[in-house]
Amino acid sequence: MSDLLSPEELNALLDSVSSGTLSDERYGIGVEGVSELDLANPDWFNRNQAPPLDFVNQMLERHLREFFTATLKKPLRVTPADPGLTSFADYMATLEKPTSIHLAHIDELDDNLIIVMSAQFVLNYVDFYYGGDGIGDTQEPRNFTITELGVAEKLYEVISRTMVQSWETVTRLTFEHAAHETNPRFSHFFDAADVLVTSRFEFSLDETSIGWLDIAIPKSALEPLHTALASSGQGDQQQKQSRWKAAFEERVRNAEIELSSNLATTTMTLGELVKMKAGDVLPLELPEHVELLAGEVPLFKGTFGVSNNKNAVQILERLR
């Protein structure tokens, strides 16, 4: 503050505050211009946070991975990023030319979304599609060819179908293709200030990035689905946990454990041990009871004997 006010000005300001002579009328600020902020109200935070799309994006990641792995015959990795909020103008400013930008209409929400594919992803998929290794030449920016545009349309159809599947647990949504643009400067699909919820999916093959996919939906379109999104996946998650628990218990029950028993011990001096040779006899006294151990953990107490012509231990009690 010392860079803005001189010592004399600072002292005058402090005197005015302490004396009560400092008025807010000069600045046009009154009580009516102040709004209350309730930090305990979750709705205030929800307005500034991305809707909970985690479950939908997990489903979409799984469907995309299954499709591309089956189509390309290679284990393609799909990595979803956390959803984020950005204005349409700011988002468009991050895109380069060319980028495959598809506008789709959501009939049920009476709104639109955009599906955006990086040039690297489109070109690498084209290379795969025609028998290449999927690592195409994407160094020099250029416009898409007619063939590449056609493949981009096919990719959009696949992605929109997987999105329908991914949203089924939340609500039924259908996506109708409305427009396609490759130059972000000409993509006037929303108002510049419209807030979008963006979800990015990174594609990689053998630890090498082959491009990304973005799905951007207006935040206002998702607000009616906030409750459904927040509760989505809970039943599915509980079902998965139940299946996992049953499978885990089955594996544990069928796990093989080696049991051992120390039948007898004796003590001798180091000198006696050094003098021992083949044929020497060690006198041992078998204990009345022995313990069965798993590793070093005693589990049962029993007695040593013979059963069906085999050495055996008869269990008397459980120790644990």
Characterise the protein shown here:
This protein is an alpha+beta fold. The chain folds into three domains: 1-30; 46-236, CheC-like (Chemotaxis protein chec, 3-Layer(aba) Sandwich); 256-263 and 287-320, no CATH class. 35% of the residues lie in helices and 25% in strands. It is built from ten helices and eleven strands. Strands 1, 2, 3, 4, 5, 6 and 7 form a seven-stranded antiparallel β-sheet that branches. A four-stranded antiparallel β-sheet has the order 8-9-10-11, with no helix packed on it. A hairpin with a 2-residue loop joins strand 10 and strand 11 (310-318). The longest helix is centred in the middle third of the chain and has 22 residues, at 146-167. The protein is elongated and about 95 Å long. The chain starts with 6 loop residues before the first helix and ends with a strand.
Helix/strand structural class: alpha+beta
CATH superfamily of the largest domain: CheC-like
Mean pLDDT: 83
**Helicity range of the residues?**
25-40%
| Tally of alpha and pi helices | 10
Provide the β-strand percentage band: 25-35%
The third-level CATH topology of the largest domain is Chemotaxis protein chec
Number of strands: 11
Euclidean distance between termini CA atoms: 70 Å
List the quaternary state of the chains.
single chain
* CATH architectural label of the largest domain: 3-Layer(aba) Sandwich
Approximate shape: elongated
By CATH reckoning, the class of the largest domain would read Alpha Beta
Radius of gyration: 35 Å
Number of domains: 3
